[in-house]
Write a structure and sequence with these properties.
This is M20 family peptidase PepV. By secondary structure, the protein is an alpha+beta fold. 31% of the residues lie in helices and 28% in strands. Bound molecules: zinc ion.
Length: 467
C-alpha cells in the first residue's frame, strides 16, 4: 500500500487541533497537595490521561487505564510490541504569558498553550499517525502501544509503574524531545558532600548560600562574613570583580559584611554555558584565613570544583568516543553556623565510567577536607547502537519526509522516557530551526510542524511494524 503521508496528515488537521485544544484545556500540573487515592498526582494529570484515552476509545482502539497514573492506546497484535511513550502532564504555567496558557490559541500559523510542544502536541501527533494507519486498514505484524504517562516532569511515577506491571516493549520511541533523533542519554548521578560547622576568629563565615536546584548552574551567591578588617575585605572584593567574569556587590551590615556574587544561570547539561556564582564566591573567600569546617568547605569548592565542568581536579574526568564528556555541575552550596556545609554536585556521565567510580573519586578528595559524600540519585547511561533498525528506520523516514540527507543521531545530557527501553530512542517533535519554548512562557508549536510530525510518525509506525 502506498500512502502519501503528508497529504493524509493534512486531512486530519482540524480533528487534530480540536482534540489538542481539549487536552490543553486541562491544567495537568502535578499537584501533590490535592493528591487522593483516585488522583495520586492531583486531578489534572489523571484527567488529561483519561481525555487522551477517550480519543482512542472514540476512534475504535483498545485502551487501558493502569491505576489512573498511566495508560495506553493499543492497535494490532503479536508477540512483539512497538511502543511510543508520551506524557499528558505539563509544567506549571509560570508568569509572562500573552495568552491564557490553558486555552489553546491560534496565531500566525502557531498554536500557543502549555503542552503544545511538551508533550501534548507531539503525543497527539503520534496518536494521529497511528490513526492514519488504522483508518487505512493497515494490519501491523505486532502490537503497537501509545503509552501515556502523567508525571514526566517530576518523577516518572506513571511510566515507571507501566514498566513494573507490563512487559518491556521490544523497541520504540518517545515523541518528547527533538528531531532528528536521540540515541544516547548520559547517566545522571547526584552527590551530597557535607562538612561540619566549626569556624575561625579572624574571619568567620556566618552563612553561604548559592543555588536552588541540582540541575541548574547557580546564577547568584550570597555570604555573610565577620572580620576585623572590613576595609581590606571590601578592597579585595573590588579587585576580584575586576579580574573575574562575575559582577556583584558588598556592604557592611550589623551582622557582618554581606557579599553578593552574580554569575549566569544555565542548565546543568552543559555547565560551560553558565557562570557558577557559588564557586566564584568560594574562590573569592579562599584568599582569607578562615578556619575549621568553614575553611574546608570553602577550599573544597574553590580548589577542587571551581571552573572545572569536566571534573579533572577530582580525577573523575572521562570522555567516550560516541557519548562525549562527563560533565559536573555544582548546583547547591550552603553553609551556616548551625548545620555546617553542604555541596550538591550533579554529574552527567557517558558509558565507560560509573556512578560508583565518581563517588570513589569525590570521596577521596572530600576526605582531605573533612567532608563526607553520599550518593542521592542515579540513572545509568543509555545508548542504542546507531545500526539498530529502530535508529536506521526512523532516520530514513525523517530524511525521506523532510528532504534532508546524512542525518546523524545525537547524544544528550538530559533524559527522556526512551531510556526505560533497551531499544528506545527519542524522536521529535521539535524541528531544527523551530524555537524551543518547552517549560517557558508562551510555549508554542507551528501547526505545520505538528502536521509534518504526524506524517513522520505515521510512516515510522508503518515502516517499523509492517515490514
Ligand atoms: Zn516532555
Amino acid at each position: 500500500m502506498t500512502i502519501n503521508w503528508q497529504e493524509e496528515a493534512k486531512k486530519y488537521r482540524d480533528d487534530y487541533l480540536k482534540d489538542l485544544k481539549e487536552l490543553i484545556s486541562i491544567p495537568s500540573v502535578r499537584d501533590d497537595e490535592h493528591a487522593t487515592d483516585e488522583y495520586p498526582l492531583g486531578e489534572g494529570p489523571t484527567k488529561a490521561l483519561l481525555k487522551f484515552l477517550s480519543f482512542g476509545k472514540r476512534d475504535g482502539f483498545v485502551t487501558k487505564n493502569l491505576d489512573n497514573i498511566v495508560g495506553y492506546i493499543e492497535y494490532g497484535s503479536g508477540d512483539q510490541t512497538m511502543a511510543m511513550q508520551s506524557h499528558a502532564d505539563v509544567m506549571p504555567a509560570g508568569d509572562g504569558w500573552q495568552t491564557d496558557p490553558f486555552t489553546m490559541t491560534e496565531k500566525d500559523g502557531n498554536v500557543y498553550g502549555r503542552g503544545t510542544s511538551d508533550d501534548k502536541g507531539p503525543g497527539l501527533a503520534a496518536y494521529y499517525g497511528l490513526r492514519i494507519l488504522k483508518d487505512h486498514g493497515v494490519t501491523p505484524k505486532m502490537k503497537i502501544r501509545l503509552i501515556i504517562g502523567t508525571d514526566e516532569e517530576s518523577q516518572w511515577t506513571g511510566m515507571k509503574h507501566y514498566f513494573d506491571v507490563e512487559p518491556e516493549p521490544t523497541f520504540g520511541f518517545s515523541p518528547d524531545a527533538e528531531f532528528p533523533l536521540i540515541n544516547g542519554e548520559k547517566g545522571n548521578s547526584t552527590y551530597e558532600t557535607t562538612f561540619g560547622h566549626t569556624n575561625g576568629d579572624a574571619y568567620t563565615l556566618k552563612n553561604f548560600n548559592s543555588g536552588l536546584r541540582l540541575n541548574m548552574v547557580p546564577g547568584n551567591a550570597t555570604a555573610m562574613v565577620e572580620t576585623d578588617d572590613n576595609e581590606g575585605f571590601v578592597d579585595a572584593f573590588t579587585d576580584f570583580l575586576d579580574k573575574n567574569a562575575v559582577s556583584g556587590d558588598i556592604k557592611a551590615t550589623p551582622n557582618g559584611i554581606a557579599v553578593h556574587v552574580i554569575g549566569k544561570q544555565a542548565h546543568a547539561m552543559e555547565p560551560k554555558n553558565g557562570v557558577n556564582a557559588g564557586t566564584y564566591m568560594a574562590k573569592f573567600l579562599s584568599q582569607f584565613n578562615f578556619e575549621g569546617a568553614a575553611k574546608n568547605f570553602i577550599r573544597f569548592i574553590a580548589d577542587k570544583l571551581h571552573d572545572d565542568s569536566r571534573a579533572t581536579k577530582i580525577g573523575a574526568a572521562h570522555v567516550d568516543d560516541v557519548m562525549g564528556d562527563l560533565t559536573m555541575n555544582v548546583g547547591i552550596m550552603t553553609f551556616n553556623e548551625k548545620d555546617g556545609g553542604l555541596v550538591n554536585t550533579n554529574f552527567r556521565y557517558p558509558k565507560g565510567t560509573s556512578d560508583q567510580e565518581i563517588l570513589d573519586r569525590l570521596q577521596t578528595v572530600a576526605e582531605k577536607f573533612g567532608g563526607t559524600v553520599k550518593e542521592t540519585e542515579n540513572m545509568g547511561p543509555h545508548y542504542v547502537d546507531p545500526d539498530d533498525p529502530i535508529v536506521k528506520t526512523l532516520l530514513h523516514v525523517y530524511e525521506a519526509q523532510t528532504g534532508t540527507k546524512d542525518v546523524q543521531p545525537e547524544v544528550v545530557g538530559g533524559g527522556t522516557y526512551a531510556r526505560l527501553m533497551k531499544r528506545g530512542v527519542a524522536f521529535g517533535a521539535l524541528f531544527p530551526g523551530t524555537e524551543d519554548t518547552m517549560h517557558q512562557a508562551n510555549e508554542f508549536q507551528p501547526i505545520n510542524d505538528l502536521i509534518k510530525a504526524m506524517a513522520i510518525y505515521g510512516r515510522s509506525i508503518y515502516e517499523l511494524t509492517t515490514k
